[in-house]
Structure formats: C-alpha cells, structure tokens
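Issue 218. Parser rejects a valid record. Input:
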Amino acid sequence: MSALLEQAQKMQEQVVAVQDRLAHLEVEGSVAGGLVSAKVTGMGELLSLDIRPEVVDPSDTETLADLVVAAIRDATTRASEIAAAELGPFTGLEDPVSTDLGALGI
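Output the parser choked on:
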C-alpha cells in the first residue's frame, strides 16, 4: 500500500513539474504569413500580440479583428497540443488534437 502511495506522490510531483514547465513555455501562432502573430504560454495565457503595420487598414477593422482572433487561436491550439503531449502520460489521453484540457483545469 505504501508503495502505491509513494508512486502516486511521485506522479503528482511529475505533473506539477510539467505544469510549471508549460507555464514558462512560450508558444507562437501566426496568420497571413506572419502579418499577425500571438504568443501564449504553454497553459494558454496570452503574452503578446504583434500586428505588422501593413495589415492595418482603418476602413477595414473587421478583417484585422478576424486576423487577431485567428492568430490567438493558432497559438492556443499549439499550446494545447503541447500540453496534451506533455500531460498525456499522466492522464491516459493520447490524442492531443481532440483533448479537452479544460477538464484537467488547464
């Protein structure tokens, strides 16, 4: 019984270490050939947004907004895939693309 508890504690420590690594990992996503890019942590927290001047058209803010959303979505999708791959061995989840990390509190 104590071996099982020791194994569970070791696994919990490993999960915490992976979560810490993900919190400090920077993942970039971009759209339109890099005209709009976003950086997020491995946990999906938005760190920065870069918009190249040539994509800014004051008469078409709707397109810019769509590009911003798409860049953030690209970055967070990449971060979710990395997180799923890192945490998969601990959760039994093997398909990072279809993984719902919200269920894990991420």
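Fixed in the parser; the record now loads. The beta strands are 26-31, 36-41, 46-51.
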